[in-house]
Amino acid sequence: MWLGVHHGTSERRGERRRREQSGPPAHAAVHYEPTVTSAAAPRATRYVVALLAAIWIVAATTGMRRGELLGLRWGDLELDAEQPTLRIRGAYVQYGAPRVEKEPKTPRSRRTIALDTSAVAALRRHSAAQAKERLAAGATYEPGDRVFADEIGRALSPDGVSKAFSAAVKAAGLPRITLHGLRHTFATVGLESGVDTVYVSQILGHSSPAITASIYQHTRDERLAAAVRQVGDAIYGRKVGAN
């Protein structure tokens, strides 16, 4: 199952509330675009199903921030390369009601991420569905090449996408997890699988590996304990995992 479970910390929720209260940065371009109701509508169209599936699968397999996902343009993707990738060059975020096109969070947030085959397949399905919507909309389709847009090319509501994800999790009877929780799940699964902290940090776009290590200290502690047990097993000739 690609959907893991990890809850965000209260510190990060508090940080998000402070950003919303303080409003968008002065340098950001602010847009008051209409809320995309289709993203959270009870009767989802086939296009919306492909759209949301692509968002969630890419989020789960790259650890990208919500704003980075919604800021993607098709020109940022290389789906036909031997190793498909995407480039993160901006973000589309929400500060209360206003929605903002902004620069990446940190210089290291500008990065290229390799795509898993499941993400490539989901993006191809979504691209085909979007092409049909663009053709049907004709001249009413918004100009631009947003990867994740509504049926007429408009930017999605970031909060609407998160609510749609939470609704789908609840409807599926899964343990509670937020869309941002997929980022934590990606990091936790990666670290627990033995991926070096430096690589996880680069993929997540953290300013330094030290930030990654501090956030996921519990995973580091578990890996250190496992390493001690492994060495002890080797010294005393115990079967792996034996007490």
Concise synopsis of the structure shown:
The chain has 243 residues and is mainly α. It is 48% helix and 9% strand.
Can you walk me through this structure?
The chain is mainly α and 243 residues long. It has one domain (10-187): Intergrase catalytic core (hpI Integrase, Chain A), CATH 1.10.443. It has nine helices and six strands. The chain has helices at 10-22, 46-62, 66-70, 117-137, 158-171, 181-192, 197-204, 209-215, 217-236; strands spanning 29-31, 77-78, 85-88, 91-94, 99-102, 111-114. The strands form two sheets. It has a three-stranded antiparallel beta sheet with strand order 1-5-4. The chain has a three-stranded antiparallel beta sheet with strand order 2-3-6, with no helix packed on it. Strand 2 and strand 3 form a beta hairpin. Helix 6 (181-192) packs antiparallel against helix 7 (197-204). The longest helix is centred in the middle third of the chain and has 21 residues, at 117-137. Residues 1-44 have low confidence and may be disordered.
Topology:
Layout: H1 10-22, E1 29-31, H2 46-62, H3 66-70, E2 77-78, E3 85-88, E4 91-94, E5 99-102, E6 111-114, H4 117-137, H5 158-171, H6 181-192, H7 197-204, H8 209-215, H9 217-236
Antiparallel strand pairs: 1-5, 2-3, 3-6, 4-5
Helix pairs in contact: 2-4, 2-6, 6-7, 7-8
